[in-house]
Amino acid sequence: MKKVLREILSTSLYLLVVLCLVYLVIHFVGQRTQVSGSSMEPKLSNEDNLIVDKITYRFKDPERYDIIVFPFQYEDNTFYIKRIIGLPGETVRIDRDGNIYINEEILEEGYGKEVMREPGRAYEPITLGGPPRKTLGPPRKTLGPPRKTLGPPRKTLGPPRKALGPPRKTLGPPGIRDFGSNERIGTMAESIREIREKLQAADHERLPDLFQLYGQDSRSSIRQEVEKAKKRLAAYEKELERIEELKRYEKEYAAYGSICGIDEAGRGPLAGPVVAGAVILPQNCDILYINDSKKLSEKKREELYDIIMEKAEAVGIGYSTPERIDEINILQATYEAMREAISKLSVSPDLLLNDAVTIPEVSIKQVPIIKGDAKSISIGAASIIAKVTRDRLMVQYDSVFPEYGFASNKGYGAQIHIEALKKYGPCPIHRKTFITHFVS
User: Is the pTM here over 0.70, yes or no?
Assistant: First the structure.
């Protein structure tokens, strides 16, 4: 019996020792903290597990990118978790783009853009204070007011020392002349911001020289900016090649003189006119990014519209109303709009490049091209003129008939448009032959 009791007592003591060791590990070696979501949430509560090292920082200082956890003072059982990006003595600055700079070196992981509360607002540089004290528990309260200094700051004993010789020369590659300046600048004397602005402002002919100058810079941020500029230059050169291919038909028929591209916009919508564009571009046209208007963003179409109107030798626009579409059908109405666009050109064309159709009652030689708005620069330009003109017109109609959402759907059969059509019936710009499935 005594032997059994002795074994039970021994086992109990053993379990007690184990429990004590577990307790010590949990509370002094690592602290188990419940957190929610990803580890970079600004506030944390229950769900996921996070182990916070409590002993490591007895033997070393915090390092950049270490993660620290501390309690949120206004809510119980809630913690903040943050990543260290600035160390004592370093200067931190955030620019208007949300980029964070540590001692004027950009923070490569790019946290700034995610945490900026007010986009467009820059934060003045701040210099961090001395090393923090590290505690194993909550921060200690101060015992009293801060100590006052014992007197005014010490004055220097004399004038600043003069340099003993000329400034040392840099060991790196020679600088280049700054844009519009006669002074030579060493690459390491320029800040990351200055070099970034140079790369962004430089034209495509200038960029290769800047690549050679800054490509071997020891700062990783500069090399990253160089790689971005190289990608931009490569995209530009690829666009030049695409545009040259887009001039294939214009080059093939160059002997005809004035070549006009023809295209329409708005054959499929339930409401609004069909609009045709006719554009004669100069033979040495240097407009980039022209394409099928449906493949371009609204912003890009608007930009190209203004450029085409400025650089084209002639532009003509034709319309066919909803009433005319109902009267003679959409195909014949489209032909009428195209003939009107040709008649409004200030220069008589010698050849027409059409998007897939041959226009009747036109004596000018025509070349129909399937999907021509993506294969001919002239037809692509005409598609942009037609599309932007019609879209702007539908936005104006939206202010007159706001129930149908014409500003966003441009008269096409979007769900909100069809629901409004069933609820309110057709308006004067609806094509009656197009809406028989939706209204009686």
Answer: no
